[in-house]
Design brief:
With 268 residues, this protein is an alpha+beta fold. The protein has helices at 2-29, 58-62, 129-132, 172-177, 183-189, 222-225; strands spanning 31-35, 50-54, 73-76, 86-88, 95-97, 100-106, 111-115, 118-121, 124-125, 144-148, 151-156, 161-163, 194-197, 200-201, 206-210, 228-229, 233-236, 239-242, 245-248, 251-254, 257-258. The chain is globular, with a radius of gyration of 22 Å.
């Protein structure tokens, strides 16, 4: 019996354990891959594509040695409590925190808001032609902020209209990052509730993320759950590696490609 257990350990348990350990180290410190589910990053990424995520870039960010850049495509977990923060595993049925894949449009210290479908970063409207050449963004604005007698009363997001006293926990950091309202809104709020498109100043360690699919309901992102902390970002997409070939109107073509930040996001 002792010989049997010795054989089982050497030939099975140790080998399986070593393989699992190597897999853990590789996916934690070297690289991993993530599948794209849905169309929230269309036209940049399509449903079913898989991207390479270099994990060696994540650790310097977590230790404060570098920051994620505007335009990079981040793999992140949305805050708990957001509409689709959890998913259900097929067949087995248990729930788990789902990863989202979104583009970083603003970094710590930036002023950001969306007005009629146009993203403004540090007062500059971004000509996101890599998106607008392929689709027409829905003319939404974010964040909507309302005041009465000079005091904030409501915040309006993609998800809905939230009175300040019932603000979900995941939107409280957003409230803290809102800049003071304009003088005109303050004056109108003395007579009645007055609303405007607010401005967000991202505090240290927070990023504003959006999907490239800006059509109505195309992406659940920071317009729903607010800015995300850097701890929520697990890495960035660097390459599309699957499927290797795709078929389109011009026939079969190679699909391998680098995912680089468009120059439009290099604003000051």
């Amino acid at each position: 019996m002792k010989a049997f257990w010795t054989y089982l350990f050497k030939e099975w348990f140790r080998q399986v354990g070593e393989a699992l350990l190597v897999a853990f180290l590789v996916t934690t410190f070297i690289f991993t891959t993530v599948g794209v589910v849905g169309q929230s990053m269309f036209p940049t990424l399509g449903n079913g594509e898989r991207v390479l995520v270099p994990k060696w870039e994540t650790w310097p960010v977590r230790f404060g040695l570098r920051e994620w850049r505007r335009g990079e495509i981040a793999i992140l977990k949305p805050p708990e409590g957001t509409p689709h923060a959890t998913a259900r595993f097929p067949v087995l049925g248990f729930s788990f925190r789902a990863f989202f894949i979104k583009r970083i449009v603003a970094v710590p210290g930036d002023e950001v808001y969306v007005e009629r479908g146009v993203v403004f970063v540090n007062g500059v409207p971004l000509p996101e032609t890599h998106i607008t050449d392929r689709l027409n963004p829905w003319p939404d604005s974010f964040p909507g902020v309302c005041y009465r007698d000079g005091r904030m009363t409501r915040i309006l997001t993609q998800q809905g209209d939230f009175p300040i006293e019932f603000l979900p926990a995941y939107l409280r950091p957003l409230k803290e990052m809102l800049l003071p309202p304009s003088e005109g809104v303050l004056q109108r709020s003395r007579l009645e509730e007055a609303c405007e498109v607010g401005r967000i100043r991202l505090k240290e360690g927070y990023y504003f993320v959006m999907g490239d699919n800006r059509t109505l309901g195309g992406s659940e992102d920071s317009r729903t759950f607010g800015p995300v902390p850097k701890e929520a970002i697990a890495g960035r997409a660097s390459y599309v590696w699957w499927p290797i070939f795709v078929r389109d109107g011009n026939g079969l073509r190679l699909n391998l490609r680098r995912v680089s930040p468009p120059e439009v996001y290099q604003v000051r």
